Amino acid sequence: MEIRKAHTTLFDPYSTARLEKNSTAPKEARSAKAPAENSGGDTVRVSRDALLLTEARRIAQNTPDVRAEKVEALRAQVAEGRYVPDSRRIAEALVREEAALFLGQGD
């Protein structure tokens, strides 16, 4: 099989001739269209989902990563010898979480 360099001279993606040609246009001609095109002003519409996502992100960023009151309560339980974790419940939660991730049903 032979590969030929067909049409390589018709299009050169690295050619700057077009850019140079446009950049030499009179400044008045380039800027003449700008006021007419923007006379109505810019309009931005944000979807409801985007607003909710922005609000959720803001709340998440302002929420502490560690719930200090819960940590202190657990620390006190451990210090007093009252902390007894339910290993079955922990194992079931881990298996459920991994199964959801495996099946593509994760958060």
Task: Please describe the topology of this protein.
Layout: H1 17-23, H2 27-37, H3 48-62, H4 68-80, H5 87-102
Descriptive notes:
With 107 residues, the protein is an all-alpha fold. It has a domain at 48-102. The protein is built from five helices and no strands. The chain has helices spanning 17-23, 27-37, 48-62, 68-80, 87-102.
Radius of gyration: 32 Å
Distance between the termini: 51 Å
Oligomer: single chain
- How does the helix and strand content classify structurally? mainly alpha
β content, as a range? under 5%
Count of helical stretches: 5
Poorly predicted ranges (pLDDT <50, ≥5 residues)?
none
Strand and helix order: HHHHH
The total of beta strands comes to: 0
The pLDDT mean sits at 79
* Fraction of helical residues: 55-70%
Which terms would index this structure?
107 residues; 5 helices; mainly alpha; single chain
